[in-house]
From TrEMBL:
UniProt xrefs under HAMAP family: Rib_5P_isom_A
Classification via Pfam families: Rib_5-P_isom_A
GO BP terms, alphabetized: D-ribose metabolic process; pentose-phosphate shunt, non-oxidative branch
UniProt family annotation: Belongs to the ribose 5-phosphate isomerase family.
Keywords: Isomerase
Known partners and oligomeric status: Homodimer. Homotetramer.
Annotated InterPro entries: NagB/RpiA_transferase-like, Ribose5P_isomerase_typA_subgr, Ribose5P_isomerase_type_A
Molecular function as annotated in GO: ribose-5-phosphate isomerase activity
Reaction(s) catalysed (UniProt annotation): aldehydo-D-ribose 5-phosphate = D-ribulose 5-phosphate
Name this protein carries in UniProt: Ribose-5-phosphate isomerase A
Organism (species): Methanobacterium spitsbergense
Length: 221
C-alpha cells in the first residue's frame, strides 16, 4: 500500500493548474485522486477530472474535484494503474473491470501516465489473464471464439459467487489466459469477435510509467 501511495502522490504533483485530468480506477489511483483533491483545496488550482468508472467518479466527488466529460473537454493528462507492464510499456488492465472506459479516456489524453508498484513490472505480458468485456447475450459465443484463439476463459464471478461481475456498462467479463507473443495483434484480434466490447490489452499508448520500489521511484519511458 505504501508504494501505491508513493506513486499516486508523485503523479498528483505532476498535475498543473488548468489541466483536465483523466482519473484512473483502482487502489493505486485512489491515492492519486485523494492527493489531487488535496492540492485543489490547499493550492486553489483549477483542475477538472474525467472519471474512468463510477468508482473514480464518486471518489472524485468526495475529493471535491470538479468533474467534466469527454464531450466537453479534451484530456491533457490521464493517470491510471495497471495489472502488468512489459518492457515496451504495453499493459494489461481491467483487474477492476473498468478497462473499456479507461481505454477511451487514457487513449484520448495528450499524455498518459501509468502508476504501479514494482510487482506489476513483467518481462512478458500474460501471467495476469486478459480481461475481456462481453455483451451478456454473447457470453457463450464469445467463449467459443476465445477458446478457438487459444485462450482459456473464465467468467469473472461476483465476490459472493452468486452471479457474474457486472461492469459499469452492464456487461460481463471473461478473464482469459493467453500465451501473448504479440500484444498489439492480440488486442486487435480480440476486438473483432462479435459481442466483445473491449479488452484489457493497452498496446503502445503509454508515455511514462512511474514505478514505486522500496529503493525509490523509477521512471520508465
Ligand atoms: C481497473 C484497472 C486498474 O488500474 C488495475 O487493475 C490496477 O489496479 P490496482 O491499482 O488496484 O492494483 O485496470 O480496471
Amino acid at each position: 500500500m505504501e508504494l501505491k501511495r508513493k506513486v499516486g502522490y508523485e503523479a498528483a504533483n505532476l498535475i498543473k493548474d488548468g489541466d483536465v485530468v483523466g482519473l484512473g480506477t483502482g487502489s493505486t489511483t485512489h491515492y492519486f485522486i485523494e492527493k489531487l483533491g488535496n492540492r485543489i483545496e490547499i493550492e486553489e488550482i483549477s483542475i477538472m477530472g474525467v472519471p474512468t468508472s463510477y468508482q473514480s467518479f464518486y471518489l472524485a466527488m468526495n475529493s471535491k474535484i470538479p468533474i467534466t466529460t469527454l464531450d466537453e473537454h479534451n484530456v491533457d493528462i490521464a493517470v491510471d494503474g495497471a495489472d502488468e507492464v512489459d518492457p515496451e510499456l504495453n499493459l494489461i488492465k481491467g483487474g477492476g473491470a473498468a478497462h473499456t472506459l479507461e481505454k477511451i479516456v487514457d487513449e484520448s489524453a495528450k499524455q498518459f501516465i501509468v502508476i504501479v508498484d514494482g510487482s506489476k513490472i513483467v518481462t512478458e505480458l500474460g501471467s495476469f489473464p486478459v480481461p475481456v468485456e462481453v455483451i451478456p447475450h454473447a457470453t457463450r459465443t464469445v467463449k467459443d471464439h476465445l477458446i478457438a484463439m487459444g485462450g482459456l476463459p473464465t467468467l469473472r464471478m461476483a465476490e459472493r459467487k452468486d452471479g457474474p461481475v457486472v461492469t459499469d456498462n452492464g456487461n460481463f467479463i471473461y478473464d482469459v489466459k493467453f500465451d501473448i507473443k504479440n500484444p498489439k495483434k492480440l488486442e486487435t484480434e480480440l476486438n473483432t469477435i462479435p459481442g466483445v466490447v473491449e479488452n484489457g490489452i493497452f498496446s503502445q499508448i503509454v508515455d511514462q510509467v512511474i514505478v514505486g520500489r522500496d529503493s525509490g521511484i523509477e521512471i520508465l519511458k
